[in-house]
Design goal:
This protein has one helix at residues 2-28, and strands at residues 36-44, 47-48, 61-64, 69-77, 83-95, 102-108, 115-120, 123-130, 139-147. By secondary structure, the chain is α+β, with helices and mostly antiparallel strands. It has 2 domains: 1-30; 31-147, Lipocalin (Beta Barrel), CATH 2.40.128.320. The chain has an 8-stranded antiparallel β-barrel with strand order 1-3-4-5-6-7-8-9.
């Protein structure tokens, strides 16, 4: 009976450890390129503000290519209720400043300032700081995108 219990315990530990490693590897392998990233969530100053996005905002996407370029497709709600589409492009580079993280600096054509993107598991996060305004206050916008 002791041997059966010991064998069961060793098998259980082996299986749970192997499953955790496979999950970690899967998350670490989510590539930036090769698929479209669609907006799924917005936080403003750390508070969920997804409800402020309209039907057109929720159609916004990024497409990153292996040659260090990207296209952002935005959608704007018109008075008619239709969505108009616009595109912007630019360049992206890997940011290896934090060991073990998947960070990217994205710069739109014509801009000097880059925006930080981070892949966390299977989610792409964009952090954008607006301001300061006339009162010296800043707002932090965090957009979350899922790989399509």
């Amino acid at each position: 009976m002791k041997n059966f219990f010991l064998l069961t315990l060793v098998t259980f530990i082996s299986l749970t450890t192997a499953n955790c490693n496979k999950d970690d590897d899967k998350d670490a392998e989510t590539p930036l390129t090769g698929a479209t990233w669609k907006i799924t969530k917005l936080e403003i100053d750390g508070k969920d503000s997804t409800s402020t996005l309209n039907k057109c905002d929720l159609m916004d996407t990024y497409l990153f290519t292996d040659d260090g370029k990207f296209t952002f497709t935005s959608h704007e709600l018109q008075v008619s209720g239709d969505c108009s589409t616009g595109t912007s492009s630019g360049k992206w580079v890997a940011d290896n400043s934090v060991a073990g993280s998947r960070r990217f600096n994205v710069t739109f054509n014509g801009d000097e300032k880059s925006t930080l993107f981070i892949i966390e598991g299977t989610v792409l996060r964009e952090d954008f700081i607006e301001g300061p305004n006339n009162e010296g206050l800043k707002k932090t916008y965090t957009y979350y995108y899922s790989r399509q």
